[in-house]
Design goal:
- By secondary structure, the protein is an alpha/beta fold.
- Helix content is 50%, strand content 11%.
- It folds into two domains: 2-181, Rossmann fold (3-Layer(aba) Sandwich); 192-327, N-(1-d-carboxylethyl)-l-norvaline Dehydrogenase, domain 2 (Orthogonal Bundle), CATH 1.10.1040.10.
- The chain has helices spanning 10-20, 35-44, 68-73, 83-92, 120-127, 142-146, 160-170, 183-205, 210-230, 241-252, 257-266, 271-278, 283-298, 303-312, 318-326; strands spanning 2-6, 27-31, 61-63, 76-79, 100-102, 133-137, 151-156, 175-180.
- The protein has an eight-stranded mixed beta sheet, with helices on both faces.
- Helix 1 (10-20) links the parallel strand 1 and strand 2 (27-31).
- The longest helix has 23 residues, at 183-205.
- The mean pLDDT is 95.
- Bound molecules: 1,4-dihydronicotinamide adenine dinucleotide and 1,3-dihydroxyacetonephosphate.
- 1,3-dihydroxyacetonephosphate binds at residues 105, 139-141, 194, 197, 246, 249-250, 256-258.
- The site of 1,4-dihydronicotinamide adenine dinucleotide has 26 residues, from helix 1 and helix 4.
- GO terms for molecular function: glycerol-3-phosphate dehydrogenase [NAD(P)+] activity; NAD binding.
Length: 337
């Protein structure tokens, strides 16, 4: 298969490396928007900025510049930019006849800063409705995938041909790819777990204890599920890899950039300092407010998410967030409001 991966951050690079090492011998090209970065990676045979010390498979090709000729040869196109870059890239891909899948996890920020933002499949419906498209998601730190450590992902699309293409491209002895037709559920899980990972990072940074962390994860999953159901997802998706799986990984694994934001805030760093020190995108920072706005519009209660938004906005101190969440009225343990 000929696969083009657009975006050479940590995750695009790791997935391109995984596909290039696939026993089926795919021809994989990793496209970077910065020509100098592409040339440096080609020379060093590694992505020294994002995945230092993990060598590329010999067959992995690097590219930059005009996307059109590359896409014209591809049998599968992977968009590996952050959410903020998705719309522009999908517009460029309009008319592409082969399956397209994105890897980003989040909500697009609303352009006017007032209305709510969109999930990736909703962006695609506006920007490039002709595309045969889907998402690849699930619990997966880029470094571990680049190293070939065992990982399981979900390929979600309403189009069975897209799901099949993703399985053929990436399913390998080190990477299991499960198919799912609930793209809404898969995208909601991937987006909201980032917000909740900020909360658990904060909880652990404040040394509130393991009980508190387990409570946050479990009640966080209830929040994800409530929002997902209101948006039309299936409940069972949230017990799968893109829901519970990714929430547990991101909330507890120190490789998570979103969790690290929470840990840094707990140390007393400002949000700007925390984001600056990551050197990577932390989607939860950008989409927390959107999640809260969209939930409010749907009448969905998301107290942990609301507390994270207040913290990120500087309206609440970490200690006060704990008191706020613990001080809520007693409630039934249900997922539905
Ligand atoms: N790093 C990880 O372990 C995982 C990341 N993701 C998701 O994948 C997305 C990308 O994350 P990372 O690669 O980790 O971010 P990163 O911060 O490592 O790199 C982002 C890359 O995207 C490039 N980029 C930004 N806008 C672009 C555009 N318009 N066109 C092309 N390239 C553009 C930047 O130049 C940079 O190379 C995020 O939505 C993230 O949530 C999902 C699963 C795992
Ligand atoms: O999505 C991820 C793991 O599945 C990566 O999470 P972070 O963006 O928090 O590093």
């Amino acid at each position: 298969m000929h696969i083009v991966v657009i975006g050479a951050g940590a995750w695009g690079t790791a997935m391109a490396m995984s596909a290039a090492a696939h026993p089926a011998g795919h021809a994989v090209t990793l496209w970077a928007r910065d020509a100098a970065q592409a040339a440096a990676m080609q020379a060093a045979r590694e992505n020294a900025r994002y995945l230092r010390g993990v060598p590329f498979p010999p067959s992995l090709q690097l590219a930059s510049g005009d996307l059109a000729p590359l896409v014209a040869q591809a049998q599968l196109v992977i968009v590996a930019a952050p959410m903020a870059g998705l719309r522009g890239l999908l517009v460029q891909l309009r008319g592409c006849p082969v399956p397209v899948a994105w890897l980003c996890k989040g909500f697009e920020a609303a352009a006017d800063g007032q209305s709510f933002g969109l999930l990736a499949h909703e962006v695609r419906a506006q920007a490039a409705p002709d595309l045969r498209a889907g998402v690849l998601s699930g619990p997966s730190f880029a470094l571990e995938v680049a190293r070939g450590q065992p990982t399981a992902l979900v390929a979600a699309s309403e189009d069975v041909g897209v799901r099949d293409a993703l399985v053929r491209a990436f399913h390998s002895p080190s990477l299991r790819v499960y198919a799912n037709d609930d793209i809404v559920g898969v995208e909601v899980g991937g987006a909201v777990k980032n917000v909740l990972a900020i909360a658990t990072g904060l909880c652990d940074g404040l040394q509130l204890g393991l009980n508190a962390r387990a409570a946050l994860i479990t009640r966080g999953l209830a929040e994800i599920t409530r929002l997902g159901l209101a948006l039309g997802a299936r409940a069972e998706t949230f017990m799968g890899l893109s829901g519970l799986g990714d929430l547990v990984l991101t909330a507890t694994g120190d490789l998570s950039r979103n969790r690290r934001v929470g840990l840094l805030l707990a140390e007393g760093r400002t949000l700007d300092q925390a984001v600056e020190s990551l050197g990577h995108v932390a989607e939860g920072v950008y989409c927390a407010r959107t999640v809260a706005q969209r939930a409010a519009r749907l009448g969905v209660d998301m107290p942990i998410t609301k507390a994270v938004v207040a913290l990120l906005d500087g309206r609440l101190r970490p200690q006060d967030a704990v008191a706020l969440l613990m001080g809520r009225d007693p409630a039934e343990e249900t997922t539905t409001p």
